[in-house]
Design goal:
The structure holds two protein chains of two kinds. By secondary structure, chain A is an alpha+beta fold. Chain A contains two helices and nine strands. The two termini of chain B are 50 Å apart. The model of chain B has no long low-confidence stretch (mean pLDDT 87). Classes of the chains: A alpha+beta, B mainly alpha.
Chain lengths: 175, 418
């Protein structure tokens, strides 16, 4: 093998190793970044399916968006919060089960829905925040909801205590 | 509808363009797209953001193919430039070029020495193939020594023949048959010659050495067959190394790369055979190529294959360099980085080898085209058809001087009768 061929291979090998070192350093020290796969409102409960890549998704899933994001927008750790960001004058709120399959679509933070007992609508309500455990489609999800007024919310709370919380569901529509 | 447009465009463009330009660009456009999709985080999301509309998205492949076609057209005139680079004519720093030339000069000398050695081997066995039977016949017919029936001569001969036949069985009945060592062959021939000189050719039934004479007769047949076999192997070896040398190097024009040397060797053919320079003959042959569909098709295919290999080599090399940098700065996949860093250089080397082989194949086709169409070209250039090769060489030489220097006093035209 001639010297120039060895030189060319050596130069490529060196460039390859330097590039590899830079890449490894970047990967270790880089702030984890994800891209939104869809438009999402503030306080959206982030799940794996909302993110562009499974790599590093654990740092985002199970957290809440601090702001509204559009499709394709870059997400960093600064854009998510471990708890939903609620206004200080939130008033009384209710926590109840919500269908896992609807979360992120028809059941979403800031979306209107109904509090259901079987197929009957008990009251209209708005989701303030959603939480799932674990943060994907394999477990259970709960919605933190607000009824039309503080008085309605209190009345519903009393019914929940009286009839048992498992009999009530928050859905986009009870039908 | 798109298929119809594609068919129309296909009829407008040559096979050389499709194979030699369009496909390499298409392959590397797809490869680069795949690398960007996998290697650049957010590229796919960015694309989806850019073209969220399904109608627009469905038109992207059509626009992509048009873009690939345009890029193929743009790159087509640059292929000779790329080829010059691969031949080491350009881009190579002069000291490197000289060093490479020195290395290839040494290799050419080594191969030339192999040709000389193969010639010597062939001459030895060819001579022996003719002379050994004569020597054996002369030994059998020799007078005066046949009363010496000492078996030592016979045994020595049979031992030498035995060693030779062992070597034949060991070396010549394999796929990569090797030549017999000269000393073994010489010893067997000389020993047998001595023994034949002492024993009768066709011993009668009462002859006490009948078995010896019969054994010597068999040995003679075996030795002659072994020598003939060795001559055939030497002939094949000689043809092989000669062809290798002829298609690899032009001793008076050693270039810095294997491809350059192969090209120089290819271009020497018309000047050796017909005293017409390649650069003079080849462009003019295109005038008459349409008269022979077989040759035209073979030339088009070989030319397209060469262009294809050249463009694939250049694009593979460029893709490797660009993506090594891009993935270093923007990538997040170490696996993809390894794939690009190791696979693409290997692919570049593979395509460079393909260029060399395509170059040789093109050389063969070029020889065929020159041999097959040169008289058509002479007719097209209004020249009389020469009666001998020497006259033809003179015609080409005079024509070339006339057209390149304007000194055309010796050139006479023969116009067809209308």
């Amino acid at each position: 093998m001639n010297r120039l061929r060895l030189l060319a291979m050596g130069a490529w090998g060196l460039a390859f190793l330097v590039g590899l070192l830079v890449l490894v350093w970047r990967t270790i020290s880089a702030e984890p970044v994800q891209f939104a796969r869809q438009e999402m409102p503030a306080n959206h409960f982030v799940r794996r399916m909302d993110l562009s890549s499974p790599m590093g998704a654990d740092l985002f899933t199970g957290k809440y968006l601090r702001r509204r994001v559009i499709r394709g927008e870059t997400l960093t750790q600064r854009d998510v919060s471990p708890t939903p960001l609620l206004p200080t004058d939130a008033g009384p709120l209710l926590m109840m089960s919500t269908p896992v399959a609807s979360v992120g679509t028809t059941v979403e933070a800031q979306k209107k829905g109904e509090i259901c007992r079987d197929a009957d609508a008990v009251a209209a309500a708005e989701a303030v925040a959603i939480a799932c455990d674990p943060p994907d489609n394999s477990g259970t999800c709960h919605a933190l909801v607000r009824a039309a007024s503080a008085a309605d919310t209190k009345k519903l709370a009393e019914r929940l205590v009286k009839d048992g919380p498992t009999t009530f569901w928050f859905k986009a529509s009870c039908k | 509808m798109f298929g119809t447009i594609f068919d129309k465009v296909q009829t407008l463009l040559s096979r050389t363009f499709w194979l030699g330009n369009f496909f390499p660009v298409l392959v590397f456009a797809l490869l680069n797209l795949a690398l960007a999709w996998i290697g650049i985080d957010g590229f796919s999301a960015w694309l989806a953001l850019k073209w969220p509309d399904a109608t627009v998205l469905s038109a992207v492949p059509a626009f992509g193919l048009i873009a690939v076609g345009i890029l193929g057209f743009v790159l087509a005139p640059l292929i000779p430039v790329f080829r010059s680079a691969l031949e080491g004519k350009i881009l190579l720093p002069p000291p490197w070029r000289e060093q490479l030339r020195a290395e290839f000069t040494a290799k050419a000398q080594e191969l030339h020495a192999s040709v000389r050695a193969a010639e010597a081997e062939f001459a030895f066995f060819d001579r022996l193939t003719t002379r050994a039977p004569d020597r054996f016949r002369a030994a059998r017919e020799a007078q005066g020594a046949r009363d010496d029936l000492n078996r030592a001569t016979y045994e020595r001969a049979m031992r030498a023949v035995g060693l030779l036949m062992d070597e034949v069985r060991r070396t010549q009945r394999t796929y990569d048959a090797r030549l017999l060592p000269h000393d073994l062959v010489t010893a067997a021939v000389e020993g047998l010659e001595d023994a034949l000189r002492q024993y009768p050719l066709d011993p009668g039934p009462a002859n006490p050495v009948r078995d010896v004479a019969q054994a010597l007769g068999r040995a003679q047949g075996e030795v002659q067959a072994a020598v003939r076999g060795a001559r055939d192997i030497a002939d094949r070896t000689l043809q092989g190394v000669e062809a290798d040398f002829r298609t690899s190097y032009l001793p008076t024009d050693i270039r810095p790369t294997r491809m350059g040397n192969s090209r120089a060797a290819m271009e020497q053919y018309p000047s050796v055979a017909y005293l017409a320079d390649f650069d003079f003959l080849w462009p003019r042959l295109r005038m008459v190529m349409s008269k022979n569909d077989t040759i035209r098709s073979a030339v088009e295919t070989a030319s397209a294959q060469l262009d294809f290999a050249v463009l694939m080599t250049v694009l593979a090399g460029a893709t490797a360099i660009v993506w090594l940098v891009v993935l270093t700065l923007f990538g997040d996949s170490i696996v993809l980085y390894f794939a690009v860093g190791l696979f693409l250089p290997a692919l570049t080397i593979f395509f460079y080898r393909l260029v060399e082989e395509s170059q040789r194949a093109f050389g063969g086709v070029m020889e065929m085209a020159v041999d097959g169409l040169r008289f058509e070209l002479l007719t097209a250039l209004r020249q009389p058809l020469p009666p001998t090769l020497e006259a033809e060489q003179r015609t080409w030489r005079e024509l070339q001087i006339a057209l390149y220097s304007g000194l055309g006093v010796n050139v006479r035209f023969r116009h067809p009768k209308s």
